[in-house]
Amino acid sequence: MRTALSVLVTALALPGCAQRAPLEPAAGSSLPVAPYGAKSTPDADALLTPPPQAAPARNVELRSRSEERADDPFDLPPE
Questions:
Q1: Which of 34, 57, 60, 73 could disulfide-link to 41, CB 3.0 to 4.6 Å?
Q2: What is the maximum alpha-carbon separation in the chain?
């Protein structure tokens, strides 16, 4: 009974943790200064968007048949 009650309370409280408003700096503080060479300070959404190098596109190439692996010169036994 107690476990079911705690699960129910958690299930009801969890949706309250979701963000519903856009991000803004805390009261009394500001966004970081503009990066070197930038003409303006980026907003919160621009700061949270990762650059392409941080999240590259996946190259999913499925193999149609098994192939022999090439020799790996760095595959050394432990010392």
A1: 34
A2: 62
* Alpha-helical regions (H) of the chain: 2-13, 44-48
**42: buried, middle or exposed (CB in 10 Å: 19+, 13-18, 0-12)?**
middle
Residue labelled with tokens 């990066």: 35
| Spatial contact of 23 and 43, defined as CB atoms under 8 Å apart | no
Whether the full predicted model's pTM is greater than 0.85, yes or no, is no
Structure confidence at residue 17 as a pLDDT band (50, 70, 90)? low
Identify the CA nearest to 32 among candidates 24, 46, 42.
Answer: 42
